[in-house]
Write a structure and sequence with these properties.
There is one protein chain. By secondary structure, the protein is an alpha/beta fold. The chain folds into three domains: 3-61 and 247-311, Rossmann fold, CATH 3.40.50; 96-224, Rossmann fold (3-Layer(aba) Sandwich); 315-403, ANL, C-terminal domain (GMP Synthetase, Chain A, domain 3, 2-Layer Sandwich). The protein has eleven helices and 19 strands. The chain has helices at residues 3-20, 22-31, 52-61, 96-107, 127-138, 150-159, 169-181, 186-189, 204-213, 323-331, 364-379; strands at residues 79-82, 86-89, 115-118, 141-144, 164-167, 194-197, 217-224, 228-233, 240-242, 247-251, 264-270, 281-290, 303-309, 314-316, 319-321, 336-344, 351-358, 385-388, 401-403. An eleven-stranded mixed beta sheet has the order 4-3-5-6-7-8-9-13-12-11-10, with helices on both faces. A four-stranded mixed beta sheet has the order 18-17-16-19, covered by helices on one side. Helix 5 links the parallel strand 3 and strand 4. The protein is globular and about 60 Å long. 40% of the residues are buried.
């Protein structure tokens, strides 16, 4: 896809968004910009980056979409929910997100006729739905497994002859291990040969095990709730090859200007949606910019190496976990003085444990259950355990989220 066509799409999207999404017009006016000031990708740097926190504030002020929706609400087929909290309208049938998703699947070797076990969540978040539609558009058959029920999902994988998998890499590994615990030979007893993993990092050691030991063709996908799939990795190393669309820039978080090759910045995206146009939207992800021909390369020639999250948020089992959500959860439970979440990764799966300092006389059993319910309600992350500790162990000055995971 040549630069001219991308520039034309940028111009058309800016003009459309300015005319139809009130929040975009207001944002341009505050920046002293007019649509004609943006003639292509290079000019996007004139527009200040919009953060997720800013979008949250807009939605709270003007629900449900903060003036960013460019069509009547009656034209929206689905509404999803992302941590923040943020409401996300689902894409229309002709949205570019589907073409890019299919391109990502083709990179992973998926074809019409594949039978896919989809182990991503279909509840509230868009991940399961987005891959479901992309696979069916490709001509594949989808088994909507969703999350959990590992015994049933393993049975369906075997009985239905699933040839492909989409979900977190840790859940795929747990399914394989469960098959072996049953005395089965995974390569002989199952037809699974291709996997596209997402929603959490894929450690090189786990990729090697899936490829070398179990003969799987593994593609790792980087995507967001707002934009769908942005990049993929189908080989060695950590570099994620960008898809041709939407426009992905890696920028200095302080200045908003693009960083050079080999430099790290925030991943900022501009889409071409005619429903929910997002212009220079900061994902909060930090990535290293890999550009083989600076100033000349097409986007699909570039890659990013994801290095972490901007700010305090961490990703647990595919969900972003914000300290403020935990603080709010703690405030709902009587007797809780200090709350700290500890994220670790024993046996290649995220473990999420709460450490709690409680007032003397607090019913710990009741408080633990209330905390579990409050956290899963706010963050949609299941709590593996609650540990009550002394005030000398943790204090309000300690990090609310302690991430002890390593990705070696």
């Amino acid at each position: 896809m040549n630069k001219k066509s991308i520039d034309e799409k940028v111009r058309e999207t800016i003009q459309f968004a300015y005319a139809n999404a009130p929040a975009v017009k207001t944002r341009f006016e505050k920046a002293g910009l007019k649509p004609e000031d943006i003639q292509g990708v290079t000019d996007l740097a004139k527009i200040p980056v919009q953060t997720k926190d800013e979008m949250v504030a807009l939605q709270q002020t003007d629900p449900p979409f903060g003036g960013a929706l460019a069509v009547p609400l009656s034209e929206v087929s689905h509404i999803f929910f992302s941590p923040g909290p943020l409401f996300e309208p689902g894409p229309t049938a002709d949205d570019p997100v589907w073409e890019m998703a299919q391109a990502a699947l083709e990179r992973g070797g998926f074809d019409a006729g594949d039978i896919i076990l989809n182990s991503l969540s279909y509840h509230l978040v868009p991940a399961g739905y987005l891959f479901d539609v992309a696979f069916t558009r490709l001509g594949a058959t989808v088994i909507p497994g969703g999350v959990g029920n590992s015994d049933l999902q393993l049975q369906m994988m075997r009985d239905l002859g699933a040839t492909g998998y989409v979900g977190t890499p840790s859940f795929l590994m747990s399914l394989i291990q469960k098959a072996e615990e049953k005395g089965q030979n995974f390569q002989q007893d199952y037809k699974l040969r291709k996997a596209i993993t997402t929603a959490e990092p894929l450690p090189p050691s786990l990729r090697q095990t899936l490829v070398d030991t179990y003969g799987l063709q593994v593609t790792n996908a980087y995507g967001t709730a707002e934009f769908g799939i942005l990049a993929t990795n189908s080989g060695q190393g950590m570099a994620m090859q960008l898809l041709p669309e939407p426009v992905v820039q890696v920028v200095n978080p302080d200045t908003g200007q693009s960083v050079g090759p080999g430099e790290t910045g925030e991943v900022v995206v501009t889409n071409f949606s005619q429903v929910y146009p997002l212009i220079r939207f900061g994902t909060g992800d930090m990535g290293m910019n890999i550009d083989p021909r600076p100033g000349e390369s097409d986007q699909e020639e570039r890659s990013v190496i994801l290095v972490g999250r901007r700010g305090e948020a961490v990703k647990v089992r595919g969900m972003f976990l914000h300290p403020n959500q935990l603080r709010f959860a703690a405030g709902q439970v009587p007797g809780v003085v200090v709350l700290q979440a500890v994220v670790s990764r024993p046996e290649l799966r995220d473990s999420f444990v709460l450490r709690v300092v409680a007032e003397e006389g607090t019913d710990e059993v009741k408080a633990a259950e209330q905390l579990k319910q409050a956290v899963i309600g706010l963050c949609r992350v299941r709590v593996d355990g609650v540990e009550f500790v002394s005030a000398q162990t943790i204090s309000a000055d300690d990090p609310t989220v302690l991430d002890e995971r390593t990705w070696e």
